[in-house]
Design a protein that fits this description.
Strand content: 15-25%
Largest sheet: 5 strands, mixed
Helix content: 25-40%
Strand order of the largest sheet: 2-1-3-4-5
Radius of gyration: 14 Å
CATH superfamily: Cytidine Deaminase, domain 2
Structural class: alpha+beta
CATH topology: Cytidine Deaminase, domain 2
CATH architecture: 3-Layer(aba) Sandwich
Shape: globular
CATH class: Alpha Beta
């Protein structure tokens, strides 16, 4: 199994933990760091919709909270068509993995391979 297959598998498992009583749309994500660690996340909804957190950001924030500062790949899994990350997730992914490989996958096995740069070609970058 290659790393992208493993990421999809781990994101699929994370999806099972999603808390989505409002939308019913469960999403799982997994990110890979340069040292080979994988961090997973699921979407966590809130009655105040603006406080909802997407699976991609959950996975990235878990990685960062454990000391990672870069991601090299990400997988996102949902039911239906392969799910593109929302704008907020694209910006967070660009912060920690601007050239990261991305696989968007459906629960039926459909996959789209792309990159963070392709998803957000003009990402905001803070320069000191």
């Amino acid at each position: 199994m290659d790393k992208m297959d493993e990421l999809v598998s781990r994101a699929t498992a994370a999806r099972e933990k999603a808390y989505c009583p409002y939308s019913g749309f469960a999403v799982g994500a997994a990110v890979l760091t340069p040292d080979g660690r994988i961090f997973t996340g699921c979407n966590v909804e809130n009655a105040s919709y603006g406080l909802t957190n997407c699976a991609e950001r959950t996975a990235v924030f878990k990685a960062i909270s454990e000391g990672a500062r870069e991601i090299v790949a990400v997988a996102v899994v949902a039911e239906g068509e392969p799910p593109p990350p929302c704008g907020a997730c694209r910006q967070v992914l660009a912060e920690f993995g601007p050239r990261a490989e991305v696989v968007l996958a459906s629960t039926t096995g459909e996959r789209i391979r792309t990159s963070v740069d392709s998803l957000l070609p003009a990402a905001f970058r803070f320069k000191k």
